[in-house]
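HOLO CASE FILE
Compound: calcium ion
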Amino acid sequence: MGTLRGTGRRALIGALTVLLAVGVSAGSAAAQVPTNDDFNHPRPVPRSIVNGTGYYDNIDATAQTCEPVHAQRRGGSSVWFKLIGRATRDRVFVNTLGADFDSLLAVYYGGQICHVLPIASNDNCPGISGGSSCLSFVALPNTNYRIAVDGLNGAEGQFHFKVRRVVL
Ligand SMILES: [Ca+2]
Ligand SMILES: [Ca+2]
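Model generated. Tokens follow.
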């Protein structure tokens, strides 16, 4: 029950965040949809990134036709990253710890959203409150992967996207 109560609270905070964002942007140009909203326009994670963190948001992001259901949960506000493969076989650790909304995280192989192969996914990182996500998977040499960060039931907000690669 504590989980449900926590989720509701986060949803309310998410709603307030959206209202604030709308208020701030009123009178200026229309709010910007994240540039990595679509599967075909992912934010690249270059092969030079072995241990890196970026700060992003999924505010006003949308779901696409054919989009997989990430982590077996209803989403609706996904953004995409493209992990560029290295020459080595790596274990890749990805997380959104500290996100200010209840995130979903999922990794896929394939270049067409209607025909991707699920590799790994996570809703809530074990032992962490707040609904942030974490996972790891084995990345094959010279192979690219798409990684989705979505919000549970369309939740939106800001998140750290952390990637760490360890050679196997
Ligand atoms: Ca999207
Ligand atoms: Ca979650």
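CASE NOTES: The pocket of calcium ion (ligand 2) is lined by residues 102-104, 123-124, 131, 133, 152 (CB under 6 Å). DSSP finds one helix and nine strands in the chain.
CLOSED: yes
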